[in-house]
Structure to design on (171 residues):
């Protein structure tokens, strides 16, 4: 289990693993709270604020037989701003999931979440996604996922998935 009580940072954070690239995260429990806050005035490019109870970003990996009890929050705390170098708009992507913040080409199975999940941004141009199991499910699958979470977002929210893309599946 995680010994973390509460953490507040910028970027991609998981209660057990920040980035899972092709690995297997198996039989773990997180009880820590995570709050990721992306401040656009500190950024010169598009930025992510990702929080996952077990894994922040799951790429071609699997998360299995894990539980989360901690609260997840990803937020953009600033209005839209412009890149200092190019003048283009900086877009924030706050994404939070009770088990995984974002899963791309991955699998999440036999998991349970009891912690609250929230993803917010101060404007609707951004994509804030919050899901009880996964914030953004992209070409990935969830099998036997269970969530008792309160899920909130001012853009996209779901009891299991905040946003599903491409050939994602739930079973």
């Amino acid at each position: 289990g995680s010994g973390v009580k509460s953490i507040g940072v910028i970027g991609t954070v998981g209660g057990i693993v920040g980035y899972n690239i092709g690995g297997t995260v198996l039989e773990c429990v997180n009880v820590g709270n995570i709050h990721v806050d992306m401040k656009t005035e500190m950024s010169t490019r598009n930025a992510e604020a990702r929080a996952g109870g077990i894994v922040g970003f799951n790429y071609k990996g699997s998360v299995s037989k894990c539980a989360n009890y901690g609260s997840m929050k990803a937020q953009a705390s600033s209005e839209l701003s412009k890149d200092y170098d190019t003048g283009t708009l900086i877009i924030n992507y706050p994404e939070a999931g009770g088990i995984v913040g974002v899963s791309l080409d991955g699998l999440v199975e036999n998991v349970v979440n009891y912690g609250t999940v929230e993803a917010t941004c101060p404007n609707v141009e951004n994509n804030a996604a919050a899901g009880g199991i996964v914030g953004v499910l992209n070409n990935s699958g969830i099998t036997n996922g269970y969530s008792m979470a309160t899920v909130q977002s001012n853009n996209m929210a779901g009891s299991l998935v905040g946003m599903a893309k491409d050939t994602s599946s739930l079973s």
